[in-house]
Amino acid sequence: MDPIPPLAAKTIAAVSTPFGEGAIAIIRLGGPRAIAIAAEIFSSRTPVAELPARTQQFGRIADGARILDEVLLSIHRAPASYTGEDMVEIHCHGGILVTRRVFDLLLARGARAAEPGEFTRRAFLNGKMDLTQAEAVMDLIRAQTDLALRAATEQLEGRLGRHLAALRSGLLSILAHVEAHIDFPEEDIDPSTGAALLARIDSARDEVSRLLRTADQGRILREGLRTVIFGEPNAGKSSLLNRLLGYERAIVSHLPGTTRDTLEEVVNLRGIPVRLIDTAGIRPSRDLLENAGIERTRQVLTNAGLILRVADASLPPSLPGEDMPHPETTRTLLVLNKCDLGVDPAWNERSSAIRISCKTGDGFDTLTQAIFEAAMHGDGSPDDYLIAINARHQACLKTAAAYLDAGRRALEQAVSPEFIAIELRAALEAVGEIAGKLDAEELLGEIFSMFCIGK
Predict the structure, then answer these.
(1) Helical spans, DSSP H, in 249-326
(2) What torsion, rounded to 10 degrees, do the Cα atoms 40, 41, 47, 50 define?
(3) pLDDT digits (tens, 9 = 90+) for 208-235
(4) Where are the domains positioned within the chain?
(5) The domain 6-128: what is its CATH number?
(6) Segment (H or E) for 112
(7) Could you tell me which CATH class the domain 226-384 is placed in?
(8) Contacts of 325 (CB under 8 A, 6+ apart)
(9) What CATH number has the domain spanning 136-214+389-435?
(10) Is the pTM of this model over 0.90?
């Protein structure tokens, strides 16, 4: 791994805790002069240069003769630090003014303000982690459920990176065999060798496909499953929202048309974040406000990841709004509410419908399981979803898949090994791009721009 470029090697500083008043604020300092700057402003019984690594020392931060704060300071010496460079962490009191004064003092002594994600970017550039692990840092911060947190932790520990390393190793081995035939052109790829190479390409292609199948799960774990609660008035849509949330979020009334606008809340259902959107009931109306709510329902359906079609089980089937637009791939679950009042016999033909009662809570275990299966494309162990690629990974893997397919066709058609090698090399580069085995400043800038300041 190439060292950090000179322009990026300047000592940087950032307040790593959220802005505002709190008990403690953490200020990070990293780079070639981090320890020297700390020595200029921090005084304690032990000089900064002699402090043991990863041990907090009590002392004072001072600007000349003026004491700014009493703090705890710790030293993390290169290469045994988060970034691989010398780092200093200052734990000061969490007032807005005192934090600002200490931070400004670091800048005055030669540090510059860190850019978003710059500490993690330096960790990546110094070989402390690959790019999938760097991205997992942000996933870890943004995780909303235990399953999302576990998936981010697994990726941070290198689980996805290990799968990609194994895939790259396999592709390198295949490419080496093909290039051996290029170096010795008198040795054609005989049928038995060709069959073995085809099998190995198929194995690599299967692994790519397996990783690609986790893309939807990864998106849901990171962003939540956009779930629209949809149906006619008085079917119990707002009651369903309240029951799933566990508290009274929406106004519930026997009067039709009570919900005029969409309500959106996030709930943790079996480890996945579900974005529940309560919508206005669908019916013909002359009320301008109600019609505006119905139009809003039409809009949110176009981006739905899952639709909960709610109907009153005690009444004969009536499902208005069948012409409402929604993505063809969006799954719809028919939810029959008010089953405590009895189920109209006409619903018996809808055997797949989920029968619930928002009043008694009956059927909600079945409903939450159905939502989980719809989100994760089947019922499986949470361990099955701990490798969950993001949109960038997906694009790279789709590129790799296309090149592998082209390489396989070239091998089947006994095309010159040079052309087979070109396709395999391109597939290898696409897989390598996921873990950051490339030099693309624009790509790195895009990824790390989404990070928090100080991370």
Answers:
(1) 288-301
(2) -70
(3) 999 998 888 888 888 888 888 888 888 8
(4) 6-128, 136-214+389-435, 226-384
(5) 3.30.1360.120
(6) strand 112-113
(7) alpha beta
(8) 298, 301, 302
(9) 1.20.120.430
(10) no
